[in-house]
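Figure 2 data, in text form.
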Amino acid sequence: MGDYKVGYGKPPQHSQFKKGACANPFGRPRRRRAEIGVVVQSFLNAKTEYREKGRLRKTSRLELAIKRHIASALSGDIGSAAMLLKMRAHAIEFGDTGPLIVRIVNALPPLRYDVGE
């Protein structure tokens, strides 16, 4: 024991790991599988840059996709208009009404849900 030098990377022998002992008996935990909903939500909520009227702006990808659908619907794309109406109906069904995206002339009034009876 007299010839063992203590220093950087060489701890004293009395404080070293004993034979058969492990510093991390359970090892690294397994990686959890990412759920598809979490992956999609994090992708859509990520900020991205775009140009509007010559200015560089940042917004979420979801908001940008909705803006593009609105622009396409206003220019006459029926598929985009249908998608916006489906998104609005889904939002009303699950309680996230948000702002009224598209107002249809001569349509039925929106459904009202009474919560708290």
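Caption note: The mean pLDDT is 81.
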